[in-house]
Amino acid sequence: MRDLYLEKSRKFFLQEAVCASVAFLIAVSVNYIFMIPHGYWIPMTVAVMFALPGQGVIVQRSVDRIFGTVLGLLFSFFYLSLLAYADYRWTYLLPFIFFLMYYCYYISNNYGIMAILMTMFVPILMAMTSEESMPLLPTLMARLCNTTIGIIIALLCEYTIFRFASLTSRDSKHQTREYFKTIGEVVNLCNKCFLDKKKFNKALRADIRKMMANLASLEALYINIKNELDFTESKEAILNRFFYDNNKIAFSIRKILAVISHDSIDESLITKDEFLEISNAISLKYMDVIRYIYEKSDDYTERMATVVSSLNNKCSSPTFFYICELAELNRIFDDFINFVHETRSSKAALSEHYKY
Question: Which partner from 26, 36, 100, 224 sits 20 to 30 angstroms from 230, CA to CA?
Fold first, then answer.
């Protein structure tokens, strides 16, 4: 079976590569035609902007780079003009300054700090290695102007050439689908461990690591999604609800893992066949989330409520705890799907209202 997501990603990556190449060509042409002082900063800025193929990342990097450039230039100007040129021994402080800035960048992963670092580095290096004194203020102003020109070129190309090629919507949908699929696989493996009286195995550990990796990818995408062309309030609401429900899902999974680590199924409470029917149905729901988003439904909420109520007199049994957590996973899934349907239907109704 073809991987449609991978095929589409290749197509969009090709389009974004064309967009970046055109932007870089424009930047080089502007520098060559107008012979701008220190014009090499224009294509350099464009290249840095397109280093990561994401529209939200490009927009956020543009904002961070503007502020980072301004702050870096201010620091460079005051450091060189007031301190270093007055007494060369101030240059001995540079290693500590760069250590501090790099450390702040590594622990925060804030591109603005990296922009400050890159902006500081060039003029300070030129001033320290040049035999003649550098015209400091004109050089720094040229850097600011050229960086701004490069950012404008990058944004214009991003918003006009294949303007939807680098949206993270496809990635966020794919990662969400993979996350739910992984939860279904974890539940399925837990069911087998619970029935076969086995403890953790390599497959279960691998799926838990995959679950965490999918979630980390979604969080990284979510940071920049507000800066994209197709951002809507309904999309933000659905993503916020997903992260809210994820905490509940993770809590239920931890409880199930604790149960299978210490006990196995009690067949006096529920038969293996009935347990498998219920647990596998919930596992399949998570692995088939797309079908449920497109209006698929079932009656497992009522069935789980019936099973849990029939076992209330055995509430101290690990099997009862396990079934309760399966019921909770089922409820979380249904509530999330219902929220998606309501959000989408309200958006469609609002569009129809303003159409007339």
Answer: 26
Residue 247 neighbours by CB distance under 10 Å: 10
Cβ proximity of 195 and 177 under 8 Å = no
Three-class SS string for 218-259? Answer: HHHHHHHHHHCCCCCHHHHHHHHHHHHHHHHHHHHHHHHHHH
Residues 124-178: tens digit of each pLDDT: 777 666 655 556 678 778 888 999 999 999 999 999 998 888 888 778 888 888 8
Nearest to 178 by CA among 45, 49, 3: 3
- Check if the beta carbon of residue 194 is closer than 8 Å to that of residue 260: yes
Distance between CA atoms of 104 and 110, rounded to whole angstroms? 8
User: Which residue has tokens 């214009």?
Assistant: 156
| Residue 99 CB neighbours (<10 A) | 10
User: Is the separation of the CB atoms in 256 and 322 below 8 Å?
Assistant: yes
pTM value is 0.73
Classify 295 as helix, strand or coil: coil
Residue at token pair 């190449």: 21
Is residue 39 a contact partner of residue 213, using CB atoms and an 8 Å limit? no
Per-residue pLDDT reduced to its tens digit, 183-219: 898 888 888 888 877 666 677 777 778 777 777 777 7
CATH number of 169-355: 1.20.120
Map residue 92 onto helix, strand or coil: helix
**What average pLDDT does the segment 228-252 reach?**
86
Q: What is the pLDDT of residue 329?
A: 93
Q: Which two tokens stand for residue 131?
A: 């035999």
Distance CA 219, CA 27 (A): 33
Backbone φ and ψ of 266, nearest 5°: -100, 105
Alpha-carbon distance of 265 to 260, in angstroms, equals: 9
